[in-house]
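sorry for the late reply, my laptop died twice this morning and i had to redo everyting from scratch. anyway the thing you sent over, i finally got around to it. pasting the sequence first so we're on the same page, its 263 residues, then the predicted structure underneath. double check i copied it right bc i was rushing
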Amino acid sequence: MAIGLAALLEKYLQVKLNKKHQRADWSRRPLTDDMLDYAAMDTRHLPALRDELRRQLVEAGRLSWAEEEFEHLEDLRWTPAPTNGDSYLRIKGARILQRRGLALLKELAHWRDDVAAELDRASFRVMPNEALLLIAGSPPTSKDVLKELPGVSPRLVEQRGDALMDAIARGQAVPEKELPRFPRGERRAMDLAFDERVEKLKVARNRMAAELKLDPGVLCPKGTLEAVARAKPKARADLLALPDIRKWQVEVLGKEFLGVLGT
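ok and here's the structure:
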């Protein structure tokens, strides 16, 4: 189900936005008049959309649910994404690389982070992950070859190609015994009783989600089910004390959860 602004406006207000500038480079200045008009169109319909969504929440008796979620969002604080270190391991697709490829990816990611910090630009604006993975998997032997790779800007190669080739050389120079490994996921010790509780809670949640016509994961995600199963609450107050659960979820699911847990 699409939940982006364009999809919501079309669904609830029958307004269809022109998204021709969606992938434009908004870091460039000055913005064109056409881009400014595009940005204004993205906000022009927000008050009407807000009113319609609020009306539907009130009608469904779920306004308090949304307000509680908004309160939790207000408590979130921005933290900068980690750079250097092991951040390269979080690049989607890194897992399929051989150890030498991981060494190359590490150097490439560090190079990209440094350039992004210098330019005060998002790292993907310097070079997309797909290009980093392509280079790490099959490193080019020259700047001319580098320019031909998809996702690699010829202008970037002209300006910073030497530093990029140096990063590739550093990755290739890492001794075999020092090549990084992709960490294995931590295995959870088998706990049949815990798994049984999670399954019972899931069945109860799915049944209630069907009644409410909600996606089960929206009503109560797996992580919350596991937190409840781990805590083994004996009363409603125990559920409310869990940091992973919302008050509205306890109101909707509390009786069901306590029932399937045998309390």
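Residues 103 and 174 are 7 Å apart (CA to CA).
thats about all i looked at so far, will dig more tmrw
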